[in-house]
Amino acid sequence: MIVRHFLRWIQTAPAGDRADATSALARAYLHSDLSPGDRAAAEAAMIVLLDDPSPLVRRALADALASAEDAPQSVLAGLLQDQPDVAAVVARHSPLLLDAELVDLVGTGEPLVQYAIARRLDVPAPVAAAIAEVGCLEACLAVVALDGADLPAFSIDRIIERFGDDAEIREALFRRPDLSAGARQALVVKLSEALSVFVSDRAWLGKERAGRVVKEAAEKATVVIAAAARGDALRPLARHLRRSGQLTTGLVLRALLSGHVSLFEEALAELSGLSARRVAGLVGDRRGAGFRALYDKAGLPASAYPAFSAALDAWHADGTGSTGRAGDAQLRRRMVERVLTAYAPLAASDLDQLLALLRRFAAEAARDEARAFTEDLIAGRDAVEDDDLTFPLAAAA
Description:
Number of strands: 0
Shape: elongated
Radius of gyration: 32 Å
Low-confidence stretches: 321-327, 382-397
Largest sheet: none
Helix content: 55-70%
């Protein structure tokens, strides 16, 4: 009887009053001790309200029912088909929605609904994957930053592919403890590309020079990431570098000249198709008999072999297994200078690109060594008298 009066009343009541009455009706359905007949009538009335011309009424219905575990499924289904700001309320809060339903909602392409789903307390892997694949930028940012989101590694890669140019996405991804070495390196590349465009657009550097500078910076960062990798993380990183076209001669040589032979070996294993154990054996063989065959099988340029051979000899001479500070990507100055000395007489001409690269490596190594010395000097100033401080290169001279 009460519901009958309600249905008659809403025919002429103002929208604001209808919204208040709709909220009261929904709360009565959820929390009052209604008879089966009244309960069925109340559900029927809410279904009728789905067609109310005022979004205020439908939004009031969504607000009242969204978080309820015993909300009528028929009403929720209708609200999910409503305009985005109404559907988003149910999409974000309802505990009754199936993963398949959430995936379908993401697929509709409504950014507000996608964003609402990404902000649910718990976002299962299939739903997170759907957001990564077709979700808007805001939804992807929300799901990346959400602690309760089960985001698969391939979905992180997809988000980087789609939105890695966005600074907020990069920052949120870098904060994730589950970010793989490959994904971290892909983000570094995106950041490098953004910096290259930034400086070239402002005419601070020429486009080609800016591209080279940031490329070498990205390669240095790649070695840092590799140095911090643990367990079996290096092989996926090497695979990612090869598939993205970044496993270049320069990067492989940088890894060796930085003392990070594990990355060097994984790179050769990826390029040659040999097992990592087999590659490690050939690299560690001081006679060098098998390294040339490994080098050729990896497809690296024949003209660069003398540089790699000299670098490997220098590594053996400095002590196999020495990798310097953890997470360090600094080039070893003695190794670089030894390789430069060995390769310079073999260079085709002054236009030899590898010779130019080795000269840049030498300059970079010298700068890094000077910075490290300065930092150590400053850090020890309180403990050591100034008269006792001697620059190590001067002392060696």
